[in-house]
User: Fold these one by one.
Assistant:
Number 1:
Amino acid sequence: MGVSLPSAADLLKVQLRHAWHYSRRVLQDLDDQEYFWEPTATSWSIRRRAPSVRGWGSGEFVCEDAWPAPVPLPTTTIGWRVIHLAAWTDIYRQYGFEGKRPDLNDFDIPGDANAGLAWLFRAQDDFIGAVNQVTDAVAFELRPAHWGESLPVVQLVTSMLAEHVHHIAEIGAVRDIRRGHARTYIPPVSMPIPPSWFTT
């Protein structure tokens, strides 16, 4: 009896849904105190705009950053990681799937945990919505990346997936460090999954 194997496009969709559904468990109950907690004396964060604050964003708040990056590189707050993920998820989607050319300074940075998480979750929903339209014929089609190179869709999507897994794991570790112990493992709770995460 033959086994039906998933296609490349199907694997992308399943991986995103699984990783990003798990990410929302890691981010549950995140409040402003944790969001802005600075793990070291020199941490990049989300700060109110001021002459001494270097970073990007178009509004009242700035996501601290610098290019070229300083040495040593500062550690970052959970808030910085959330906004970093939200912005780059939107940029990857708009470059690769919508033919747009956004810039980090186009974004109005939210100044609290609830608004930052809302942006990240919306960015995830929109990205999965775009990937849901990917077929096997499209999976290896070349699409533009924000740094000027054209790459297969599968590479752009898995790059974004790896970025999320990397930073969400960091967020989980920072939350453990701040509370002084690892989070007690609780079996996965059923969480609502947005309808856009599934193909129609």
Number 2:
Amino acid sequence: MPILILALFIGIPLIEIYLFIQVGGWVGVWPTIGLVVLTAFIGTTLLRQQGLATLARAQSELDQERLPVRELFDGVCLVFGGALLLTPGFLTDAFGFALLLPPLRAILGRGVWAAMARSRNVDFSVYGARSGPRPGGGPEPGGPVIDGEEFGVRRDEEDGQPPRLRERR
């Protein structure tokens, strides 16, 4: 793994320098610089738009008392995409713009989810789910039970709803 990281830290800047020289030779120095600034501007605009949409979807999922897993993954992809778009270069911009495409994020998310499900170090369980044979045939999830106390939570006993976090004002 350290060799791969070293190769990326050396290889990506070399590819970017090569691309700068090639594009600069085709269109000139100032248009090349203009292209880099333009892609950063367009990228941050798209990033802001998609980030706000993802945040709205996450809030909607939380309002319906569901865990916003897809939205969290989209948010991580948008953070990486934004970092790549703000890094000067054509290769990093291409990867950054690719992470802004929702269909590509969905495919990537399914791949990451499948890899995590195959991993022996990750166990998925839902609180309150029935116990039974697991699809992978592995051992039943278990382990120590941790007793704790709640704080910052109020109970809505009047309407029979589950406890919710207090709204901060």
Number 3:
Amino acid sequence: MYGKGLRPLAIAAAITTIAALGLIFFFAPNDADQGFVQKIFYLHVPMALVAMAGFVAGGVMAIAHLRTGKRSWDMRSYVSIHLSIILGLGVLVTGAIWAKASWGKWWVWDEPMLVSFLIVFLLYCCYQPLRFSIEDPERQARYASVFAITAAAFVPLNFAAVRAAQAFIHPEVLSTTGGNMPGDMRITFLVSLVAMGLLFVTLWKLELTSKHTSEQLRRLRGKLERANERAAEEAPAAESGAHAGRVPVAAGSS
């Protein structure tokens, strides 16, 4: 079910990723102020945008789970949030490297965009401990969905509040200035964004396929074990019935 279309999607993700890397290193020019280190922008910003989209998508899928009660929607939401947390960690690491190269500091606490993303990341880091602290599968899925919906609603509100802030050190990509990037830089950024999105969807489908296959194997293993237990219980009864059906032979009979 989840593996349908995975092969062409993976091929498309691989091609666009290779194309994005080629554009980053051989096509996009070095920044006039920051030089070569600015090229981390083409990895840092797409990761941030795709991570945010993944968090919101996880909340939408959680709504579908609460409405339908289907565990498949809960699993989709879980995988989307799980991958977005990994991307979020990548955003913080690449952002720290870029900040050190550009500002001379690994972190700037008075920059609202940095701090707001850290808050979102830490919020979602509570998702998995909350989820796996509940043993009952139904309650686990229900509580996780409520958390995912609440956190997803916080993401655009937090983003809007940060955009309304006046003082910015962090460059605003989706702004008037960012929208006027040179053509070669804009093409590189857009290809990198598409590549990151395709990579996310590919990994999402791949993990869902893996989890679905593992679940099927567990069910088959459980059925096999129950069948073996029933066979073991029925074997002594069948043997005792066979012994009871035998007619004893009288001593001295010919």
